[in-house]
What we know:
Elements: H1 3-12, E1 15-17, E2 31-33, E3 50-55, E4 65-67, E5 72-74, H2 76-81, E6 88-93, E7 96-100, H3 102-106, E8 127-129, H4 137-146, E9 152-154, E10 159-164, E11 170-179, E12 186-194
Antiparallel strand pairs: 1-2, 3-12, 4-5, 4-6, 6-7, 7-9, 8-10, 10-11, 11-12
Amino acid sequence: MNVMGLTKKFAAAGLFAGCILSTGVSLTGCLSDDTKDLAKPATSTWSADSIVHVGAQGNATLGSAIDLDAKKVMLSAAANAAQSTIDLVFFFSDGDLYLGSPVYAKTLPEVPLAANYDLTKIKDTQMTKASTKPDSLSLTISNFATSPQTNNAVVSGGGSFLVKTGEGRYAYISVDNIQGAGNTASADITLSLIGP
Length: 196
């Protein structure tokens, strides 16, 4: 079999052989159309830590809606205008402070800021408890996939989590420095991102 001749024929036909050929290995599954966009490469290292300041739903100065990809917190009006970017909501419910998806927050009557969220725009962000930040993207993906996932978690005592963001990245977040109590409480969230 003349592998070089086949490669030239495929190249002449506008196809790209995207695999390493060795000792007459079949080309099945190695061809792709060279007119398609290439996937954006994944960022395999964690971004530098950032701290965002959040307030529960009754806090008059700090927002509750968190966009992890942009590393920002939004007050209610801004969050309503940018619902598709909300990854998590910080709120007080049933005697505890929580982080939860906007879908979960919308189900709670004691979280009125989420009442106007449109279910066709918001996402049910998933998170899992994590005691340490994984060393690599592959380990992050593996840890997230093999750990129990939820759309809400009590954070009254702090805690660390892996979160899959709406843009497909992974965030490692740590809830610290909780101040106050009830629906006016506030906290610092340290976060870093990894992934595409």
